[in-house]
Design brief:
This protein has 19 helices and 11 strands. By secondary structure, the chain is of the alpha/beta class. Bound molecules: pyridoxal-5'-phosphate. Belongs to the serine/threonine dehydratase family. DsdA subfamily.
Length: 450
């Protein structure tokens, strides 16, 4: 059944070298501590991006704020800044402690990117940022705009006519397509979204209603990206947003970090040597969680511990980092099917750029079954009345596994965290959900009940 020759090695050899592969193949839940994790100062010199790049992205989003406030009324209240609430979830914490018979030391919080304006997922950070940056580059290059100007003029018809000469394309499992599609169409670009088979019908319908061209594929995410890239290359006026390699997307996500820092300070939550911060991020191709983790490490260095969560059927980043093969390896190479209810995470091959960037920064990766995702989805509705899509709950399993698994214990011991856990802050990064239609949300909820 398995390919006997996987990237030049037999399956037996792979397992000998990386015994965890056995559990990955049988889609068991695992908790993997990253052996490449190092003190931040040791990694800092080797990173392809630095703090000034994050600040540049932050300032660009600031310039666009007057435009966004005008074009998207739902952002007006925040003066055109696309940001999400940070909320403490004590009832959920109690519920999972009871449910899993495991005390979580420290305080559990939820970062509600599920409720980001415009597109209701973490993709409203990176996706929208990259389109805005492209629009700015074009307008400045054609002497229609300077960085000193009030960007609300971008909502004028003259700009829409100008941007309509250009097109944008992207491959997506759904949410990135939503972000890119919605913002591009509003600015005036022609936009094509190449959707993988797992993309939900309601997302395609919503985009088509906004004038976005949606191309559907019978295969998974990697194929949709590949096709999108190929078709875009043939059109010189087309700009392809490359979820697997884009530094702009990554930087758009990273801006979440300074904003979160401010939110924590406003809430009087301390992060320092004796008050560690743990962040649990759902991971697909890696850009979203990678960008956020990168931004957080720049600010908090060794005081923040970032973990990614992946579905048991799509542990692509784990496989790529563990083997060091990054985007050269896929879960399908090992007969893992990449089929999961967590459509935003249904990615079989990770981003090589992200994997190499976060290699020394990431504390570890755990996997989570679809059953647990819907259980946690239901628990969060029942305890806090917060509705997330299944992918977003991958973050919610992190704190449980840190305390429950042997590898989690090892991490705590190795980094001398045991005595500090009482003071810990655990943040579940809730990556999507507010735009899911009610009937579909109800079907997720009832899945857990049955
Ligand atoms: C895209 C997505 C992620 C993961 O982001 P990647 O950049 O693909 O790793 C997580 N959750 C949701 C809901 C998403 O849409």
């Amino acid at each position: 059944m398995y390919n006997n020759n996987i990237l030049g090695k037999s399956l037996e050899r792979w397992i000998e070298e990386f015994p965890l592969i056995t559990q990955l193949i049988s889609t068991e839940e695992v908790f993997w501590n990253n052996p490449h994790y190092r003190p931040f100062e040791q990694c800092a010199g080797e990173l392809p991006l630095e703090e000034k790049h994050v600040q540049d992205a932050e300032q660009r989003l600031q310039r666009f704020a007057p435009y966004l406030a005008k074009a998207f009324p739902e952002t007006r209240q925040m003066n055109g800044i696309i940001e999400s609430p940070l909320v403490q979830i004590p009832a959920m914490q109690q519920d999972v402690e009871d449910r899993y018979g495991q005390k979580i030391l420290g305080q559990l919080w939820l970062k509600c990117d599920s409720h980001l304006p415009i597109s209701g997922s973490i993709k409203a950070r990176g996706g929208i940022y990259e389109v805005l940056k492209y629009a700015e580059d074009l307008a400045i290059h054609h002497n229609m705009l300077t960085v000193e100007e009030d960007y609300s003029i971008l909502a004028d018809q003259a700009f829409k006519d100008f941007f309509s000469q250009y097109s944008i394309a992207v491959g997506s499992t759904g949410n990135l397509g939503m972000s890119i599609g919605i913002i591009s169409a509003e600015i005036g670009f022609h936009v094509t979204v190449h959707m993988s088979a797992d993309a939900k019908q309601w997302k395609k319908d919503l985009l088509r209603k906004k004038g976005v061209v949606v191309v559907e594929y019978a295969s998974d995410y990697s194929k949709a990206v590949e096709e999108g890239r190929k078709q875009s290359e043939q059109d010189p006026t087309c700009y392809f947003i490359d979820d697997e390699n884009s530094q702009d997307l990554f930087l758009g996500y990273s801006v979440a970090a300074p904003r979160l820092k401010k939110q924590l300070e406003d809430r009087k939550v301390i992060v320092d040597e004796d008050h560690p911060l743990f962040v649990y991020l759902p991971c697909g191709v890696g850009g979203g969680p990678g960008g956020v983790a990168f931004g957080l490490k720049l600010l908090y260095k060794d005081q923040v511990h970032c973990f990614f969560g992946e579905p048991t059927h799509s542990p692509c980043m784990l496989l790529g980092l563990m083997t060091g093969m990054h985007n050269k390896i896929s879960v399908q190479d090992f007969g893992i099917d990449n089929i999961t209810i967590a459509d935003g995470l249904a990615v079989g091959r990770p981003s090589g750029f992200v994997g190499k960037t976060v290699e020394g920064l990431l504390s570890g990766i755990y996997t989570v079954s679809d059953d647990q995702l819907v259980e946690l989805l239901r628990a969060l509705v029942d305890t806090e009345n917060i509705h997330l899509e299944p992918s977003a709950l991958a973050g919610a399993y992190g704190a449980i596994q840190l305390f429950k698994s042997e590898a989690g214990h090892n991490y705590v011991e190795k980094h001398d965290l045991r005595k500090k856990l009482m003071n810990a802050t655990h943040i579940i990064w809730a990556t999507g959900g507010s735009m899911v239609p009610e009937d579909i949300m109800a079907s997720y909820y009832s899945m857990a009940k049955s």
